[in-house]
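Journal club prep — side note

Before the paper discussion, L.F. wants everyone to see what a predicted structure for a comparable chain looks like in token form. Sequence:
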Amino acid sequence: MFYLPSARATPREFVGLVYIGPLVASRACAPSRVLAAAGLFNATVHGVAEFRHLWTHPILHYGAKYTAHFGAIPQTPLAHAIAMTRAWHRAHPQFCLQS
């Protein structure tokens, strides 16, 4: 199995780059202890509590195996890629999801 090299960012940092504003400034909806306690009674909350650490630790795919097999690939810096994606969606509103 091959993994492409990924940007070094936590999901919280990624969301911060995508959604600039109050959503980013807000913290998680509940403290870890509250989620853990509520998770005893609700399977969904239990799952949220188990994966909470992923918001503060980067999910990394180094891609060493891919690079060794296929060679290095160019990587666009994450902030630039998100800015380009936002610009594309502004220029092509017909392709944006409607809520």
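L.F.'s comment for the group: Helices lie at 11-18, 22-25, 32-39, 43-51, 64-70, 78-91. Keep this in mind when we get to the figures.
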